[in-house]
Amino acid sequence: xxxxxxxEQIIAESLxxxxxxxxxxxxxxxxxxxxxxxxxxDNRQTLSFPQVRLxxxxxxxxxxxxxxxNTEVIAGVATGGIAHGxxxxxxxxxxxxxxxxxxxxxxxxxxxxxxxxxxxxVIVIEDLVSTGKSSLDAVESLRLAGANVVGMGxxxxxxxxxxxxxxxxxxxxxxxxxxYSALIEEAKxxxxxSEDSLQxxxxxxxxxxxWGTDEN
Length: 216
Prior knowledge:
The protein is α/β, with parallel strands linked by helices. It contains seven helices and ten strands. Helix 1 (7-17) packs antiparallel against helix 2 (50-67), helix 1 (7-17) packs across helix 6 (180-189) and helix 2 (50-67) crosses helix 3 (80-92).
């Protein structure tokens, strides 16, 4: 009997094939933080591919039902987590809310949009986790609004130790559908990058702050 592939590998393969993830060690990207990076991840692309977005939705639903069975509300993080969060909420028959990156500048000046009851158990949906800072800002906003945030789910994480520490400090459980290690494994299988590029990608993973600089 053929062994079923782990979901993290299937999703990693899907992200590569639809070019939601681009690998370019020879011509690296520059993040807003100033870090040089051989990888660029835009999970908004998944929404344009019905099979991929449904795969992602179903994996979120499976994880939530398995590990957070008492979830009462699904929250999406603007902007990348809004559509995926709404799909998950619809599939689970749960209320949906979302968190703005900053408070609205008019009207009620809300940062959390939608109906949220005090103490309701909330799972937050995010598209990507790097250091975790912006994701955890959303968690804090929900907590200030009265939510009991029981965890966060993201499509993809780079797996930085800094993110692990940030989520531990914030006392927020994080689960992800795929990750950098699974992605590199699939890129190798699919021959998306050369052996030399694979080594460079591994080096970036261990020292992202200094990769591509004179210090590295």
